[in-house]
Amino acid sequence: MLLNLPNGNETALGAACQMKRKDIIEFLLAQGAPMDIYVACVLGLTDKVAAFLDADPSLINRKNKQSHVKPPVVFAQKPRRQITGQQRLNHAVEPTVGRQDRGLHRYNRRQNVQSSAKSAGRRATVLVVLSDRRYAMNQKLNRRDVLRWSILAGTGGLLAACTPATQKSGSYANANQTATSASHTTAATSATTLVSKITQAATQFLAALDDSQRAKAIYAFTDSERTRWHWTTPSGFPRNGLPLREMDQSQQDLALALLHKSVSDRGFQKVLDIISLQNDLGNDPQLYYITVFGTPGAEPWGWRFEGHHISRHFTLAHNQLAVMPFFLGAWPTVNNAGLKAMEREEWAARELITALEGSKRQTAIFQARTLTQHVTQNQAYVKPLDPVGLAASEFNADQQALLQEIIQLYLGTLPADLAATHIERIHTAGLEQIRFGWAGALEPRKPYYYRLQGPTFLLEHDNSRNGGTHIHSVWRDFAEDFGQQLG
Q1: What is the separation of C-alpha 99 from the centre of its chain, rounded to a whole number of angstroms?
Q2: Cβ neighbours, 10 Å, residue 92
Q3: How crowded is residue 288: how many other Cβ atoms within 10 Å of its Cβ?
């Protein structure tokens, strides 16, 4: 009797949807409450959402009168709850970076709260960007695609799983003492499972293509195309492979599912955010190309996802996965809808350079003017650059935490176990040997460049264009780019 009785303009199910309380929603459904598109969005039921939209496409914009008059895209987002500062500390939730929260943000790091862990309330920004806009189907991503892909992504997940939980801020000496033979066995099993899932997803994707599409999508593993890559628009650097534009909806779903299997939830959402920014630039957000090298399952093989500001490479051999190099970019850094695709990648480094004082800051700033571009460009393989900046051994605990946050922000886009392996490798090589170098302005929205370089890796982050609102960043591995270590 009470199931559908409205409280004012809100039913019990509507209230549960508004609060994103899946437990209550599931209980009410079991008691006979009706399923609708809003409920399906909260529960992440992609098939049911698609079925509702197939039956009535206008639902994409229809507001739920039983839940504070909001459209479906709002219910696809993770819950945003009002929480106190102490609750943030208790639950390892990263605060927003507004003026009132920055003191708490610094305090969280001092308390060894993982700064890179994103709040479960972080909004699915790709939905917000597109939800109130109307784009032609043949030129833009439609809202249904964005809604479907965002639900697939599991938006707003935590990064903590990819970072060793026992690692204390500023502690280098004991970084690897907890590693045991059992953990290595578990890691190997996990790697095998991951390779199997990616192989299966790639096989399903290729099977869904027709002959002409497969001819575009597939290259030999030994083809020089595998190490030919770029970050600019396809008009500026023609891509080879099959673009999303030339796939039907089901094929696009399989292509995005393959990408999701190959990266973390956070890495997948990062891709969606960067793709959505193409609408702000007047670019086609479906000009992202899938290219497969070799035959999935017949190792070695690999695949690539690439387009403007995204280049992700995956090499599979001996039941192992290599994911280097990878490129992530963002322009604008903040769009009109408030999307900040790479906010912490910028601000964590700015907080680090401004936290350094006196001679330490002078050493870290190796050049007064920005470099204007990243040094390694689109080279297939790279060697360590000349050492510049300040060694991490000179950092205090808060500064070390910022350094580790930057590393986790980038490696957190990898599958969790693989990210943990790379972090362990960095610690083994010596976290204190990493050098942090800065060039350019310290103020926001002004051109700058920064670099992290350790014994095993190089991270270049350049924000020199368009008044410091156009990020190019690339992670290189001296031994593992394009799967060198797999033989």
Answers
A1: 25
A2: 16
A3: 26
> Where do runs of H (alpha helix) occur along 208-306?
211-217, 249-262, 265-276, 278-281
Q: 138 pLDDT exceeds 50? A: no
According to DSSP H, which parts of 365-459 are helical?
Answer: 397-411, 416-430
- Residue 133 region by backbone torsions, left for phi larger than 0, else alpha for psi between -120 and 50, else beta: beta
3-state secondary structure (DSSP) of residue 298: strand
Question: Facing residues of 286 across strands?
Answer: none
Would you state the structure tokens that stand for residue 333, as one six-digit string?
């850094």
Tell me the C-alpha distance between 138 and 149, whole Å: 18
Give the Cβ contact number of residue 223 at 10 Å: 14
pLDDT, tens digit, 9 for 90 and up, residues 240-287? 999 999 999 999 999 999 999 999 999 999 999 999 999 999 999 999
Sign of the four-CA dihedral 232, 234, 240, 243: positive
Q: What amino acid is encoded at 314 in this protein? A: F
Return the number of other C-beta atoms located less than 10 Å from residue 56's C-beta.
Answer: 10
Residue type present at position 388: V
Listing DSSP states for 87-100 in one string gives HHHHTTPPPP-SGG
Contact 276, 129 (CB under 8 A): yes
Contact 128, 337 (CB under 8 A): yes
Q: Per residue in 407-424, pLDDT tens?
A: 999 999 999 999 999 999
Strands 365-367 and 435-440 turn out to be parallel
Q: 0.85 cut: is pTM over it?
A: no
The continuous run of DSSP H or E covering 355 comes out as helix 343-355
Best CA proximity match to 323, nearest among 448, 439, 417, 223: 417
Q: How is 97-112 classified by DSSP, letter by letter?
A: -SGGGHHHHHHHHHTT
